[in-house]
Design brief:
The chain has about 350 residues and is of the alpha/beta class. Helices cover about 50% and strands about 10% of the residues. The protein has two domains: about 170 residues, Hypothetical protein af1432 (Orthogonal Bundle); about 130 residues, Beta Polymerase, domain 2. It starts with a strand and ends with a strand. This is HD domain-containing protein.
Length: about 350
């Protein structure tokens, strides 16, 4: 049987259903951290005039709790500004949460604090990346990414010059960090939050052109997904068909690289094959079935295959990614990527 993804949104919002002031602690230690955070940040306000802890720190904690569900990381998210903004000590965190839990929380908060406040100027992103390279703890990285993500969601409250600075730093430093962690969907979301503030005119033009692309219209996507599902069923392979839409920033950067290499004009996104990617996921998790399905795809789309764009990341995995990627050139639409994976 082949399942077809139901399309609700082309680009899911990772912050969906996380509302400020709605945090519900799921463990006694998290509840204690929440109450302590409220005490430490009492009276502090964001630029929007809203309470600092309830609208920012609690959001970071809630986001991490839903994303990962690691108690120490959630607590570190709630307390990530306790040293920098409230003058609390790491030893006090260890006292509040004795044992390994307190040690891990203090370590993450220390790392997040050290990643904060690089110097202003052109070296800002380089210094941030240098500090990131000092750490090997994914907890530090994820708490900092969650912190930056929420700051981008509320960037409109900052002065215009600061918006550009913060947005540019997010793309150049923290987008790269998400990529290093193989959090590609998070990277696209973060970069697309920053893009309108970093380069507003370019963003407006890029978004308008991408949103009008025929490959992103349901009138193309749904029949094409059904066609791929039929191919899988005909080949006797169980699995699913889903889609992934590339972020606006990532798509724009890829087109720029292609234009520099003279592989595409800068005013035409039709050559960007993974503007939308169709994923054929094989249920029985075998490499043999993937190559059988590749044969079926090649046979059906034969005349339209772009033989210059073929990647076998099952035989040669890249950063843990395993899939076979083929590109199909469809007249009146453009290049379309089909990825076959377990």
């Amino acid at each position: 049987m082949v399942h077809i993804q139901t399309i609700h949104e082309m680009r899911p919002n990772l912050a969906e259903n996380i509302a400020p002031g709605k945090f519900v602690p799921r463990t006694p230690a998290i509840a204690e951290a929440y109450a302590w955070g409220q005490e430490l940040h009492a009276g502090q306000k964001r630029l929007s005039g809203e309470p600092y802890f309830e609208t920012h720190c609690a959001w970071v904690g809630a986001f991490l709790d839903r994303l990962v569900g690691n108690e120490a990381w959630t607590i570190a998210g709630l307390l990530h500004d306790s040293v920098e903004d409230s003058g609390e000590s790491l030893d006090r965190i260890r006292q509040k949460f004795p044992g390994p839990l307190g040690e891990e929380v203090a370590h993450i908060v220390d790392g997040v604090t050290k990643l904060s406040n690089p110097r202003d100027g052109r070296s800002r992103e380089l210094e941030t990346l240098r500090k990131i390279a000092m750490f090997r703890d994914p907890g530090v990285f994820l708490v900092k990414l969650a912190d930056k993500s929420h700051n981008l969601l509320t960037l409109q409250h900052m002065p215009p010059a600061k918006r550009v600075q913060k947005a540019t730093e997010a793309i150049r430093a923290y987008g790269k960090l998400a990529g290093i962690l193989n959090c590609y969907q998070w990277r696209c979301w973060l970069e697309d939050l920053a893009f309108p503030f970093a380069e507003p005119e370019t963003f407006a033009d890029v978004r308008a052109r991408i949103d009008a692309d025929p490959r992103l219209q349901l009138s193309f996507i749904e029949p094409f997904m059904e066609q791929l599902a039929h191919l899988m069923e005909k080949a006797g392979i169980d699995g699913s068909v889903s889609i992934f839409a590339k972020g606006y920033w990532q798509t724009w950067q890829k087109l720029r690289r292609m234009a520099r290499a003279r592989k595409a004009p800068l005013n035409n996104f039709s050559h960007v094959n993974d503007l939308i990617s169709f994923r054929l996921v094989v249920e029985n998790n075998t490499r043999t079935a993937c190559y059988e399905l590749l044969g079926a795809v090649n046979t059906f789309f034969g005349p339209y295959l772009d033989n210059d764009r073929f990647d076998d990341f099952i035989a040669y995995p890249q950063n843990g990614y395993r899939a076979i990627q083929v590109t199909i050139w469809l007249p009146d639409y453009g290049a379309v990527e089909v990825a076959i994976a377990t």
